[in-house]
Design goal:
The chain is mostly helical and 93 residues long. The protein is built from 4 helices and no strands. Helix 1 packs across helix 4, helix 2 packs across helix 3 and helix 2 packs antiparallel against helix 4.
């Protein structure tokens, strides 16, 4: 990455994500970001142990996480950072 360590960049990207209006991000991208965030911050690689999809929204969120469950946390962080930075750039934030 750069001179900053990955965890610092990830924390900054998460903070910057709060600046992006949620309605301006397509739902599929929101789900991708959710999955990457959960994978990057989870202590387990098995999301089924901690999610019980009780409604459609939770089922979609669980599916987003399952799609990246084999990604190492550092790779999930790097991908999350890349997407957030791109969204910020597109929105001139």
């Amino acid at each position: 990455m750069s001179e900053k360590d990955l965890n610092t960049l990830f924390d900054e990207a998460f903070s910057n994500a709060q600046l992006i209006p949620q309605e301006s991000v397509p739902q599929d991208m929101q789900l991708i970001l959710y999955g990457l965030y959960k994978q990057a911050t989870s202590e387990t690689s098995n999301p089924l142990l901690f999610q019980n999809p009780q409604d459609l929204r939770n089922a979609f969120k669980l599916n987003a996480w399952m799609q990246v469950k084999n990604l190492p946390p550092d790779e999930a962080k790097a991908e999350y950072i890349k997407i957030i930075n791109q969204l910020l750039k597109e929105r001139n934030l």
